Each structure stands twice: as C-alpha cells, then as structure tokens.
Amino acid sequence: MLAVRFISSLILITFVILTIFLFPDWFFCLVLTSMTALAMYEFYSLVEQKGILIFKYVGILIGVTFPISIYRSFEPTKGWELIFIIAVVLLIFILQFTRRESDQSVVGVSTTIFGVLYISWAFSFLIKLKMISDATLPAGSLLVAFLLLVTKSGDIGAYFIGTYFGRHSLIRRISPKKSVEGAVGGFILSVVFAILSKFYLPSVPVVHLFILGCLLGVLAQVGDLSESLIKSDCNVKDSGNLIPGLGGVLDLIDSILFSAPTLYFYVKKFLI
Asked: Where are the chain's structural domains?
C-alpha cells in the first residue's frame, strides 16, 4: 500500500506542477472544476448512504459555477458571491417544494447547501490565488505552489511521524489513527517549509511566511479532521477510491478547503 501511495503521489505531484506552471490558466480552471464536481459527488454520495434526501446533481451543477465564474471574472456586483449563495438557498427550497414528503427537509436543504459552500466555494479560492496580480507580489502560480507545499508537507509529515512515532491518540472518536505526535510533527514541517519558501518568494517577509506557516499548518489539519468527522459519521474509511492508495478526491483536497481562503484573505489584507 505504501508503494501504491508513493506512485500515486509522484504522478499527482508531476501533474500539479505541470498544471500550475506550464499549462494555460483555462486548463487550471478545468482541472479545479472537475475536482470540485468529483469531490461534491463523493460528499453527496456519503450523505445519501445515511438515507438523507438531497439534490445531488443540482448541488454539483451549482458548485461548478463558482470556479468558472471566478475564472471568467463574472462579478455583476461587488458582493456577487453573497447574492449567489442567497439565490442557491432559494432554489434549493423551491426544489424541496416539489417533493411529496417533507421528512428530512431541513437536513436535505442544509446538507445540499453545505456541500456547495464547504467544497466548491472554499476550493475555488485556488483560482483566486492564481489570478492575483500585483507588482509587490510574485506570480499567483507561486502562491498556489506555496499553499500546496505548506499544507501537503504537513499532511505527509503527520502521516509518517504519526505512523512511526505516534503514541497518543489525537481525537480517537473521529480518527483513531491520528496521533498527537503526528499532528505536532506535521505542524512543524508546515512552518519549516513555509519559511524555506523565502527562496522562491523573496519579496514576502519571513515574519509573514512564519505566520502563514502556523495558520496553514493548523487549518490544514483542521480540514483533514473535519473530513474525518464526516467519514466517521458515514462509517466509511475513504470518501472514494478514484486515486489508488490515497482514496477519493475529497480525501485529497480536505486540507486545502480551509487553508486556501485563509491564504487568499491574508495576502489581500497584509501583502498587497
């Protein structure tokens, strides 16, 4: 399993590097939109296993509009995202009116909307990061690379340190295999790689890299634990089996869902 995980990771890393730095922006958007749809499909499928009635395909269709709208710079108003979310809530309720039964209406509506916000809205911040253009900052591609490097180094560190040195369970009821030692080790690696990023982000002060390393290091693990909580509630080990050795797409991006918006807002607030 470790060999399969290594091979899958190597292929993914190569593909990610090519997508970020060599392929055009439209391809980057296409990849993220596809991953959004797949991750939302996995999430909604998990929820359906609990017998909750949701609007799976409507939710996915709404979800893919976020990254596409951002890439196409479709912003009819300054607060278009908020207006869009309100429109989504209205649409889901109207669809709920068409059902014969009212059982689990609150859970169904809430879960459908949650899937859009939790996955699509949060993940679309990768496109916002890539499209950042400012004379005082490196190219947006490097910011995306920074995000992935810091979050995924923490993931890898937590996995290996937890596997070989983990003795104390972090939150046993959510994920029995996650340990305090792994969490600490993953956090330290995230901070270290954030500081080392000074080599390709020379214009960003080290103090900001350190702060971002701490923020992203914590939020990446919170994102991972959050998905583990969902999987624990649905009694599954992985969100899917699309990626050999690594699980599903949602398993792959869970640590990014909270860290991507955080990095974007931090950059906009303190670095531009």
From this structure: 2-271
